[in-house]
Design brief:
84 residues
C-alpha cells in the first residue's frame, strides 16, 4: 500500500539544478530526498548537478508554465519532476 502525503510523514522537496529547472521529490526524510533526487540526475542534461533543497516546497511557487503542467503526482513518495 502506498502512503500519501496526508500521512504527514512524507515531505515535498525541490532541488534546484545547475543545467535544468530542478528535481522535485516527495520523501520520508532529507536523506531519502537526496537519494531520490540523485537517482533522477540521469533525467537532466549531462553534467547537471543539484543544489540545496527547498523543504516543504509550495507547488504554487514553482514555474507554473513548465514545471507544474509537466509534473507527476506529488503526494506519493518518489520523483515527480522531471517525469521519467
Amino acid at each position: 500500500m502506498e502512503t500519501s502525503l496526508s500521512s504527514r510523514l512524507l515531505r515535498r522537496y525541490w532541488f534546484p539544478a545547475s543545467a535544468a529547472l530542478g528535481v522535485g521529490v516527495t520523501a520520508w526524510s532529507l536523506e531519502d530526498a537526496v537519494s531520490l533526487a540523485t537517482g533522477a540526475l540521469h533525467l537532466l542534461p549531462a553534467g547537471a548537478t543539484i543544489g540545496h533543497p527547498i523543504e516543504d516546497v509550495d507547488i504554487n511557487a514553482l514555474d507554473q508554465n513548465h514545471v507544474v503542467p509537466n509534473m507527476g503526482p506529488c503526494n506519493f513518495r518518489g520523483v515527480w519532476y522531471p517525469r521519467g
